[in-house]
Design brief:
It holds the Pfam family SCPU. InterPro entries: Spore_coat_component, Spore_coat_U/FanG. By secondary structure, the protein is mostly beta strands. It has a single domain, classed as Fimbrial-type adhesion domain (Immunoglobulin-like, Sandwich), CATH 2.60.40.1090. The protein contains one helix and ten strands; from the N terminus they run E-E-E-E-E-E-E-E-H-E-E. The protein has a four-stranded antiparallel β-sheet, with no helix packed on it. The protein has a three-stranded antiparallel β-sheet with strand order 7-3-10, with no helix packed on it. The protein starts with 15 loop residues before the first strand and ends with a strand.
Length: about 150
């Protein structure tokens, strides 16, 4: 009789998944600020270090994260009256702007605890009652934020 041995190997690849709920502010009435809340959730393989970052949006002005805007759905070239300024924060008291770590914004970092354990975090938004927002024309406004998980 002859015998042989062989090794059995596998590698667990680091992986993450992420999802985000839409943030619907509802109706903004000039004269008051309007707050909203949404959630981001995800999971990463156990021990995988990750960082979550947020884009400034499609309609941010030259000031980037300081100037997140929703654009109106009207026709023609955009003017300041076709923009509605808003901001995204990590806390309900609006003290930390979510971003990519530049311009005073923050990212969120952690370690995965397994693909079957979803980690969730609230996102807080605000449409401030500024002079520019008070000049917005009636209509529907929107923007798109990209959430990136780097691991």
């Amino acid at each position: 009789m002859k015998t042989a041995t062989f090794n059995v190997e596998a590698t667990v690849a680091p992986i993450c998944k992420v999802s985000a709920q839409n943030l619907n502010f509802g109706s903004y009435t000039p004269g008051t600020s309007l707050d909203g809340q949404s959630e981001i959730s995800g999971a990463c393989t156990n021990g995988t270090q990750f960082t979550v970052s947020w884009s400034p949006g499609l309609h941010a002005g030259s000031a980037g994260y300081d100037n997140r805007n929703m654009a109106g759905t009207g026709s023609g070239p955009a003017t300041s009256a076709d923009l509605l300024h808003y901001q995204l924060y990590s806390t309900a008291n609006h003290n930390a702007v979510l971003g990519d770590g530049s311009d005073g914004t923050i990212t969120v970092s952690s370690a995965g605890i397994g693909m079957n354990t979803v980690l969730s975090a609230n996102m807080y938004g605000q449409i401030p009652d500024t002079t520019a927002n008070q000049q917005a024309v009636p209509g529907t406004y929107s923007d798109t934020i990209t959430v990136t998980v780097t691991y």
